[in-house]
Amino acid sequence: MTSDLQLDNDEWAQVARAFEEAGRDMRSRRIGPTGHGSLLGGIIRFLKGGSAEGEDVDARRSALGSFLDATRLRQRMPVELAAPLLSFGYSERQLEALAVLAAPSIARMGSRRH
Fold it and tell me: Cβ(67)–Cβ(82) under 8 Å?
């Protein structure tokens, strides 16, 4: 992982939105049985006629949540979980930034290596 996370304003804005969205999703999974990640929530979305676009959003959110959860747990970027996020349009630098936001100790470890 590089210690130089230079992103332009648009890239940082996308990182911030993704991190905020993942935080909301995590809170909704904790709050109740109809949250985004719940079985009942999935049934409700199905009954409301979820679209293919909605499924893409759900898949992206799920991949993002898995990536951030694994990063927090391992205190390193889970490289094996990066491919789905790359396919959704995130860059490697954005994933590095998300990893540092999820586990700030990663930035400190990276700066010691150089």
Answer: yes
Number of C-beta neighbours around residue 77 at 10 A: 21
Considering Cα of 99, then 82, then 53, then 69, what sign does the dihedral take? negative
Of 37, 8, 20, which Cα lies nearest the Cα of 102?
Answer: 20
- CA–CA distance, 13 with 40 (Å, rounded to integer): 32
What is the model's pTM?
A: 0.67
The mean per-residue pLDDT over the stretch 15-37 comes to: 66
Three-state SS across 67-108? HHHHHHHHCCCCHHHHHHHHHCCCCHHHHHHHHHHHCCHHHH
What pLDDT digit, counting tens, does each position of 32-67 carry? 444 545 556 566 556 666 554 556 678 888 899 999
- Chain length of the chain: 114
- Determine the Cα–Cα distance for residues 53 and 50; give it in Å rounded to an integer: 8
User: Which phi-psi region, left, alpha or beta, contains residue 38 (left: φ > 0; alpha: ψ -120 to 50)?
Assistant: beta
